[in-house]
Every structure is written in structure tokens, then in C-alpha cells.
Design goal:
Elements: E1 20-23, E2 29-34, H1 39-50, H2 66-76, E3 82-88, E4 91-100, E5 106-113, H3 122-136, E6 141-147, H4 151-160, E7 163-167, E8 171-177
Parallel strand pairs: 5-6
Antiparallel strand pairs: 1-2, 2-3, 3-4, 4-5, 6-8, 7-8
Helix pairs in contact: 1-2
Length: 182
């Protein structure tokens, strides 16, 4: 039997809520807003993920073929998920999602920043605003897994309040509390 997932006792935040705009570290005007379900936004994500560097794929995501990207996006853009897109004009620069994990109100987080936009502060704004979005809709517990050697990602997660709650040979499990349980 699997050990129940642990969560920090202390609530993190507050976090900014989308939509928001900022100038990234490279001088680009970035807007973060919730996914609106349009074909235009869906296709922008397909384009971003289809061109995603295979070296930045972790744990099999994002998938490598366009048809698999489309199927994967259909699952994580579902009505019970919460999604934000970072935009540079009409181009998707990043995407973050909260996907329900079971029936207990727990969500798994995933975040992707397209390679031309990495190391410019977009990931920090994207994850903080996703956590703010989650808290605003009543989500109290979020977890993620990350490859232990992905030091930039681990540092980002720690910076916003995630704590390591488990470790396998290749992955760390991290969690954050956004609010008190009912």
C-alpha cells in the first residue's frame, strides 16, 4: 500500500491571480491569462509543444509527436483542470496546469516554458499566478514530481513555497498548501 502524500502544515502565499502582465528579463511584454477554450489558443499550444526541445521533456511529457500532443492537451485542458498560458503577443511562451488527482480536492501541477523564453522570469510568474488561480477557486493542496537533477525547476518550486515530501531514485515529489482544509 502506498504511503499517503504529505503536505506542509503552513499555508503558502498569497499569490498573484491572473490575468497579469509583466516585462520579462529579455524586455518582452508577457501576458498570463487563463486558457479560454478557443481553437486559436489550443493551436498555439500545439505549435509550442510540437517544437518543444526533446531535451526538456521530462517523465514523458510533453509528448513528442503532434498527434500525441493533441491527445495529451485534450486531457489536461478538460473542464476540471485549471490552465494558464503565458503569451508573447500571439505566441505561447509557456503553459501551466493544475490537474485533479483523485476525488479529495488534490491537484497535480505541471509547468512548461518554451525554450526561447526560459531564464527570463516567465516560469516564476506562471507558477505563482497558477497557485493564485488555484487558491481563488478553493484548491488547498498541490503536488508535483520533478527529476532530481533539474536544479532550475527544483529551485523555482522551493522559491515559491514547495517542500520536498518524497524521493524516488530519479524524482522528487514536492507539495504546497494553498489553504486550510474544510
Amino acid at each position: 500500500m502506498k504511503t499517503p502524500r504529505r503536505y506542509p502544515e503552513t499555508v503558502s502565499g498569497p499569490f498573484e491571480e491572473p490575468p497579469l502582465e509583466f516585462t520579462d528579463g529579455n524586455g518582452r511584454n508577457i501576458e498570463i491569462r487563463p486558457y479560454n477554450g478557443s481553437e486559436t489558443e489550443f493551436e498555439a499550444l500545439v505549435t509550442m509543444y510540437d517544437d518543444f526541445d526533446p531535451a526538456d521533456r521530462a517523465q514523458g511529457i510533453p509528448p513528442g509527436k503532434e498527434s500525441r500532443v493533441r491527445s495529451w492537451l485534450d486531457g489536461i485542458l478538460a473542464d476540471d483542470c485549471y490552465n494558464l498560458i503565458a503569451w508573447d503577443g500571439e505566441d505561447a511562451a509557456g503553459h501551466s496546469t493544475l490537474v485533479p488527482d483523485g476525488d479529495d480536492g488534490v491537484y497535480e501541477l505541471a509547468i512548461f516554458v518554451y525554450q526561447p523564453y526560459q531564464q527570463a522570469g516567465i516560469g516564476t510568474h506562471l507558477i505563482r499566478s497558477l497557485l493564485g488561480y488555484g487558491a481563488s477557486v478553493g484548491i488547498t493542496k498541490v503536488w508535483l514530481s520533478v527529476e532530481r537533477w533539474n536544479h532550475p525547476a527544483v529551485s523555482l518550486y522551493e522559491k515559491v513555497g514547495f517542500e520536498t515530501t518524497g524521493a524516488e531514485s530519479f524524482e522528487l515529489e514536492m507539495a504546497i498548501r494553498l489553504g486550510e482544509d474544510d
